Structures are given as C-alpha cells and as structure tokens.
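Propose amino acids for all 186 sites.
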C-alpha cells in the first residue's frame, strides 16, 4: 500500500513538473518519418556529427559557428574598426562603440550602436544608431543627440556592401554538401 502511494506521489510530481503539463521531448510532427531524412535534417541544423570529421577530418574539434562566419558581423566590425569598442556581443547581436572624436573637433564625439535583427544580408537586417555628443568649451555641459541623418545611411550601406562581398567570397569557395549513402556515413 505504501509503495502504491509513493509511486502515485512520484508520478504526480513528475507530471506537474513538466512544462505546461507536457512530457519532455520533441514534437513528432516537426520531424520527418524517414530516418534518412531525419539524419540529413539533423546534420544540416548542426545537431549531429559526421564520422569523417570526428575520426580525423579537416577540423578535428568539430564544426562550430563563430562570429567570423557571419558576414554581417564581420562587415560591421570592418566598417567601424577605427573606433574603440565598449561591447561586441555576438550572441546578443549588438556592437557598441565608445565615444569617438577625431583631432579636428575635440568638443564633439560620436557613438555608434549596431543591432543585428537577422543574419540575412538585407536592408532591414541591422539597426544602426548614431549618437552625437556636443560639449561646451570647458566640457562641463554636454548634450547628446541621436542622429538619423546621412551618416546612419552611409554606415548601413557600407556594411551591407561589404557583407555581400564576404557572402560571395564564401560561396565561391568549394562547399561540400552532405551526401547520404544510406549508411549515415559520407
């Protein structure tokens, strides 16, 4: 009798601890029925590994996505490389520069924030904000204004052009797609 009560309590705790009352695991409707298609989909999404790569392929540590593989990210860093950075968070999708002023205008400085909305190279993929800080001669009073002028458009245009060049260079390199021979091994 005590064992039945204990098992019932454990079962109730297990079922109520699941998110939204659902059992853990994936939704079977989102995965193909055919095992070969499942293997292909998992490899394309980076969920699996290829035996060739694991045993002694070109990149022995596995295939990882680094910020250097994202064309928009690389292009953004290249365009603003003359400015000091406060934060560059790839996983958060944001680059923030420090205040920058050239030698000609010591009372005026710029700060640029680039936010990544998608990895695709298109005009609405990035959000560029430029803040202009204008200080009085004694630097006691400063006014910060967000500008939406020509500078924002030019920075965005430069980033997108450079990202398109990087994408073309990436496509020109030899790309070896996954080929299924029926055994799950290339």
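Proposal:
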């Amino acid at each position: 009798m005590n064992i039945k009560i204990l098992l019932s309590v454990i079962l109730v705790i297990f079922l109520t601890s699941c998110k939204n009352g659902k059992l853990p695991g994936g939704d079977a409707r989102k995965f193909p029925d055919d095992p070969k298609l499942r293997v292909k989909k998992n490899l394309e999404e980076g969920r699996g590994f290829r035996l060739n790569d694991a045993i002694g392929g070109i990149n022995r540590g596995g295939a990882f996505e680094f910020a250097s593989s994202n064309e928009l990210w690389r292009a953004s860093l290249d365009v603003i490389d003359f400015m000091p950075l406060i934060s560059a968070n790839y996983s958060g999708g944001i680059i923030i520069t420090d205040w920058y002023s050239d030698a000609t205008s010591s009372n005026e400085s710029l700060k640029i924030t680039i936010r990544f909305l998608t990895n695709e190279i298109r005009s609405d993929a990035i959000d560029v904000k430029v803040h202009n800080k204008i200080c009085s001669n004694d630097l006691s009073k400063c006014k910060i204004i967000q500008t939406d002028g020509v500078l924002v458009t030019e920075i965005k245009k430069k980033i997108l052009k450079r990202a398109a060049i990087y994408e073309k260079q990436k496509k020109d390199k030899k790309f070896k797609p996954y080929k299924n021979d029926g055994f799950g091994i290339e």
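Residues 150-172 form the longest helix (23 residues). Residues 57-65 have pLDDT under 50 and may be disordered.
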